[in-house]
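=== RUN LOG ===
request id: a7f3
mode: sequence -> structure
chains: 1
length: 695
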Amino acid sequence: MIFIFAVDPSLDAEPLSVITRSHLRGVFWDLALWHENTEEIAAVRQHSMNNTPQARPSERPACKRLAKSLPEGLKMPKAPEGYGCGWLFFFVGTVACIASPVTSLGGSIPLSGTSYLQDFQSLLTASGVAPLPEGWDVRTGSSASSLGTLGPTVIKQTWADNAKGFINTASTTGLTAASTTTAQGNSINRALGLRQSSEFGDPGAAFNFHFDSSGQTLTSGSIDLLMLSVQGRSTAWSLQYGLGLSPISFTTIASWSDPGVWGATPLPLDGPSLAAMSNQPSVWLRVAALSASSGTGNCDTMAIGALQLSFVPEPSTLVLLLGGLLGSTLWGVGRVRRPPAASPPHSPRPFPIFLWPGFTLIELLVVIAIIGVLVGLLLPAVQAAREVARRSQCQNNLKQIALGVLHYESSQRRVPPAAIVSEIASPTTCNGCFNPWAEAQLTVFPPGTKQGTSWLLEILAQIDQMALANAWNRQTNVLGNASLAETNISTFYCPSRRSGIRSSRDDHKNLVSTAWRGGGSDYGGSYGRLDGFYNDTSQNHRFSDRDTPITGSIGKATQHEGLFLPNAGLSLAAVRDGLSNTILLGELQRLRPLSGATAANDTYNRTSHDGWAAGGVATLFTTSTDPGHTNPGGMNNLFFESPGSEHLGGASFAMADGSVHWLSEFIDAKDNNSVFPLLGSIRDGEAATLSGSGY
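=== RESULT ===
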């Protein structure tokens, strides 16, 4: 609580001998100033006590309470003539309290905006000693009750270098475990790493991020831990947080041990931890080795690849602002209504203690109108802030899925197959087409012969869904794994659209079984810029690369232009246009046919498939523009194989390098040689980049 006192400096305090009850009448309604002259206050108190018998019987107790309650050192200036200024002081003070910048404590970095992302790209320019980003430090001697000692310098180094210490090194993005030291040194994707030894940081090494979350509510977060050089000795790392300038206790969020393979592991921040770290002036988030390594030989090389936090303003801040404005309005109205003091000096009539008048109907209506205007101004801002937070969460979901695909590619040397499917459509209707949707729904078939599954099933282990991946029965199809396929995975849902299957929107009718009430997905893989799906009236949307050229496309239609293929996947090495210029994943439209419609454009061309477990158009999209097949191109175009979202003005996409970007729905997609279709192609040979897409 902050109290603000303001006094007109031109008003001199009257001598105590001439202070009368008429003057005292306004004392507790007007402005006050602390003063050191306690003798004057004592005289005021005595003056009031001496004249108490003159008051009416009903007023005597109040007079005595007032006289006895006068604080020591309170000096009372003459009341100003204008009574409407009180609300102005209160309003300015409230706004100043809310709008004043918060001073960060102890070198912490204040969180601002709606998200924080640290990918250590600032280490790129360092050839020797690398200055760390603001708010970050490295330490040794850390323990369960201590931050430890501020660490030594960070040196640029490759993964296999055995020199002990904290290092600026290449991350896993865009590289493989076999990448040369030259490629590592030239990589633009950096990480903050460590090579431990028995003499250095084993145990006690820690990476720390010190931040100020005052006025912010954390909604999501994750940190990528990288295993860069697998050695004989492994270390158990703890992701923890502590509160205060020098915390003496830490809460463990998650633990991470040597996975035994090169690659990245994302660790999400759970809800209770995010809540505890919200609206705090000093928060320490650290990754620490609190116990000695185990095994023989050298220690592993590990690193932090990226930290991402999403947050929204504290609701209490908006409530305080509204309360301040309301209070100032009520104060001002009351001040205007206060009658002037009519009693002359030394009047025998005692002053009334509480003379605050009531409100008139007009004043009440004015106040209500002002409150309505304030609420009308604040609500759109609150809603906009919430949508920004949801979009940030959606992009974080895409980031996690993209990292899962890249981890899979790192271990398997290829991205996961678009679908595992053997059901081939009739050549007379769709030559070479597969039908994963029909295969996913089969009930009778020899064990192990039918799947109809999607690429999302293949990366469950990489996105912290190992139990679900291990429970999946590979001897049957999607319908045979119904209890697992119905599982709602929060990472697969866009928060701006839904948090699960919506019966009110008939989402369940787009699933493999209409009886399901879970298992949806709002994200898909890019199948390139070719028209890969067949517009069939059965609404199965069989898919393949068409064997006839698409109008306006470059090269032959038989060339695969996306990384995802039926029963296979390509290596990142197949991307000739640059990983950062090629769409890997994106958001999907979720369409339902128009009620009572019979035309093709309003029925099967507006029918989405849904479900993370099912292959085909349920988990894939194209960037194609193909008027010959009624595909207008772009996004949010009401065509079943095009991407889209529930966000206003565009959608989010993950590129093949793992980065996530927002693309406007007004991006150039007039034909298959335009920017958006070309971004979906891995080797079109054309110069299409994000910098020219207007994203």
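=== NOTES ===
The chain is about 20% helix and 20% strand.
The two ends are 44 Å apart (CA to CA).
=== END ===
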